[in-house]
Amino acid sequence: MLDVRRMQMLAAVVSTGSVTAAAARLGYTPSAISQQVAALEKEAGTELLERVGRGVRPTAAGLLLTEHADAIGRRVAEAETALADLLAGRTARLSVRYFATAGARLVAPAVARLRSERPGVRIELKLAGPDPLPDVREGRADLALVVGPGDHDGVRLLHLLDDPYLAVLPKAHPLAARRTLRLTDLADEPWVGSEWPGPCLDAQLGACAAAGFQPRFVVDSEDYATAQGFVAAGLGVTLIPRLGLGGRHPDVVVRPLRGPEPTRAIQAAVRETASPQSALEAFVAALREAAAS
């Protein structure tokens, strides 16, 4: 196998036309350069230089290896530049998992900011399944947006915001005249379920338990828009997080809650053992800025 370092020494001799000049450029003695070129000739199985007067010139084989040495040098320089850009966060590829209600409010502005500040960073966005944490833990995703507190092996949770639940009632409901409701005001009402079992529903049920009652669900729905439709039809009341109220049904009213206020914690999950990535840190900062706005 040809030695790349020796090929680069040969290229220096060819470009200067002199072993002595090449040695001065590279910081070696002339005898060291001659020894390395001789070793390269042994590896190549042919002469690479021939004497011309007081200098040297490459043979056809020597010229061939010089051209390849130059190409290798350029590729190494490109690799060094690319590595520096990656370590500085100017370039990277991030894989992000998110859930629908966090998309418009958090993910979209964060991606826009990162693209503006670091156009070389590529972001792969994918709507998360029921549990995106295995993707993060096993390295298939760099970050996932999740709901709920708690410890998860191999995953670190970074708090972004607390998303409060709001009461959604039919426009004609007697409680609609109030500007603010207590959670206990809804204790005897029929409820429209707006969440599947999981941390979002747990946040609602936990607040209701703290207020001293268990909600009576009369119908379940698959999403917040459907839940609003059931409420508008007079089937009951529901709770929907602020981020989930992007589009409001015209026949419902929305009121803040207190005593207690149900809240879901939105977190960014990253792999605990992941190497530091400047681009990932910048994306988390962009998410936090979007959450604070």
UniProtKB/TrEMBL annotation:
Domain of life of the source: Bacteria
Matching PANTHER family: LYSR SUBSTRATE-BINDING, TRANSCRIPTIONAL DUAL REGULATOR HCAR-RELATED
UniProt GO cellular component terms: protein-DNA complex
Entry protein name: LysR family transcriptional regulator
InterPro entries: LysR_HTH_N, LysR_subst-bd, WH-like_DNA-bd_sf, WH_DNA-bd_sf
Domain HTH lysR-type: 2-59
Pfam families: HTH_1, LysR_substrate
Keywords: DNA-binding, Transcription, Transcription regulation
Originating organism: Streptomyces griseorubiginosus
CDD domains for the chain: PBP2_LTTR_like_6
Family (UniProt): Belongs to the LysR transcriptional regulatory family.
A GO MF term: DNA-binding transcription factor activity
UniProt entry tagged with the keyword Transcription regulation: yes
